[in-house]
Amino acid sequence: MNKFYPPKENKLLIKFAKFILPWALKSIYKIEKIEIDINDIEKLKSLKGKRVILCPNHPTTNDPILMFYLSKLIDHNFNYLAAWDIFVETPLRGYFIQQLGAYSIIRGTIDNNSFKKTIEIIKEGKNFLVIFPEGDTCGLNDYLMPFQTGVIQLAFWALDELIKDNSQNDSNLFIIPIAIRYKYLKPMKKEIETILTNIEKKLKIYDPKLKMHDPKNNLLDFYYERLMKISEKLLNSTEKYYNLKSNTNLPFNERLQKIKEFIINKIANYLDIKFKPDMNLLDKIRLLFNTINTIVYDNANLNRNNFENEISEYERKLYQEKKQELKSFIDDLNRVWRFVAVYEGYIKEKMNDERFLEILKRIEWEVFGKEKSYGPLKAILKLGKEINLKDYYQDYKANKRKCIENLIQLLENQIKEMLNIL
């Protein structure tokens, strides 16, 4: 059984973290400025003491720190639903965010301990609860991954218990969509040029003549040509690595999709996992990550001595070899995840520094094995219209699945509309 990591809420550490937050935002996250309408701040303050679930989009790994900033801004503590992977893969980080009110969930599974804690937090209404409906980041400002229905289902389960409990006179339960968008505070052409050059040199396709840009042409168009050459090189190299037949006549998106599907199916076959017909790519990735992490990390949380005493030296050797092989699959899955939302045309749709750097950062991470941050950034937060689940309770009782699907769509549409105007 996988270990559950509950929220600890260390008051002294929360106070200290809020004290150093301005420094952390600028020095670590490159966020120089945060914009939020005063009316949105007042709305959040007016809901203190009520049951509130904040549902932001999740473009980057910076997003939780913005929710912590909101917590400081309105002087109200939050709880945060966080991926179980964080706690087991980076224990120090996991310990720290636990102290700030975060707790674990194994995504894409029935995590009863996490579900119980979520329902308990919602019912109590002491803190706001932050849940990212996408369940993961994709690194793209203008792309929303499919929202998970779990946030609405958990909220209705809590509402069920509230209504059954006659001592509760107030059964209001508010879900508030939040749009997050990042913009650079200065032109980023110099950074784009540097990243392109570094990647070209690493891939051995650098041409010094490329520095000689014709001023008559758009600079971003020039960069886009170089980006497409890099993408072609990466596709060819990846196809060779996985022994896939390269067909340059196929569109870019089809070739990329074939690589993703090959990796996913290869790992699923090894683990003897059968995907449901309606599973999207992200759900498949989650299922594979969860299965591998359970094998690789779970025994560290069990009685290791008893486990090792019960097996022979040879069996122990085989077990360790299997764990190492599974860890190599994590690299493959991370490769798919880094490009889960990437498609040819994303930059062309809206040619700007933000979109260019979003794609380049994913490629840089793939080529150099490390994710880098660039700035200075401005983060913009916008609150949508609150959804009181109490108003939809009768619809939920009449047709649970349809009601949940409609509310998830409402949540997603609100965030899309806000992102379009930010």
List the helices and strands and how they pair.
Elements (H helix, E strand, L loop, with lengths): L10 H17 L3 E6 L1 H9 L5 E5 L6 H11 L4 E6 H6 L1 H9 L2 E4 L6 H13 L3 E3 L19 H15 L9 E11 L4 H14 L16 H23 L10 H20 L9 H17 L6 H6 L3 H26 L7 H4 L3 H16 L8 E7 L3 E2 L4 H6 L1 H22 L1
Tell me the series of helices and strands, N- to C-terminal: HEHEHEHHEHEHEHHHHHHHHEEHH
State the share of residues found in helices, binned by percent. Answer: 55-70%
Low-confidence stretches: 300-305
Portion of residues in beta strands equals 5-15%
- State mean pLDDT (0 to 100 scale): 90
Rounded to the nearest angstrom, the radius of gyration is 23 Å
Molecular shape = globular
DSSP, total strands: 8
The description of the largest β-sheet is: 8 strands, mixed
The N- and C-terminal alpha carbons lie at a distance of 44 Å
The structural class is alpha/beta
Number of contiguous helices: 17
